[in-house]
Amino acid sequence: MVSDMVYGSGFAAALRYVGHMTAPRLPIEAYPYRHPLPTRWADNDMYGHINNVVYYSYFDTAVNALLIARGVLDPQQSSVIGLVVETGCQYFAPLSFPDLLSIGVGVERLGNSSVRYRLGVFRAGENTPAAQGFFVHVYVDSQTRRPVPLPQELRTVLAELVLEVPQEG
User: Fold this and answer.
1) Domains observed in the chain
2) What is the CB-side half-sphere exposure of residue 53 using CA atoms within 13 A?
3) What is the pLDDT of residues 2-13, one digit of tens each?
4) What is the pTM assigned to this prediction?
5) What does the pLDDT look like over 8-46, one tens digit per residue?
6) Coil, strand or helix: which one is 101?
7) Could you give the C-alpha distances from 153 to 76, 117, 127, 141, in angstroms and in order?
8) What is the 3 state secondary structure string of 9-65?
């Protein structure tokens, strides 16, 4: 296994350990939206792979790029914005600069004022995620920061992204 050659057998053992607590890994085709994303030199840590905290910026970038592209978010002008209240990630294989990535985005749960996104991080051309996670937005009034119901235009866009998979927990 390439990860054993680069990271030693401990990496494979760590992956086996987390295997019991992972949600089913979705193939890239399961995600209704895929955001292409190049890694950056600065994404690597001293161990030679993408640092764990960087994956959260990938999630944020992919979700917000989707919302902007679909015309339901203008970060400077929108009266309703999504604030991140919870996020998590599981790692299965190392990635590093200069990998090209595809971030799969889908919706697991659509609430009155919140949405739980499911995300997969794929090396370009691969079907199995190197990492997967979730990202919860609570939508609030941009001025008062109080929760508000999802605007209908946003709800319509998000409803098109609902995944047909078992939910975690």
Assistant:
1) 26-159 (3.10.129.10)
2) 2
3) 444 444 555 555
4) 0.83
5) 555 555 555 554 456 789 999 999 999 999 999 999 999
6) strand
7) 18, 17, 31, 15
8) HHHHHHHHHHHHHCCCCCCHHHCCEEEEEECCHHHECCCCCECCCHHHHHHHHHHHH
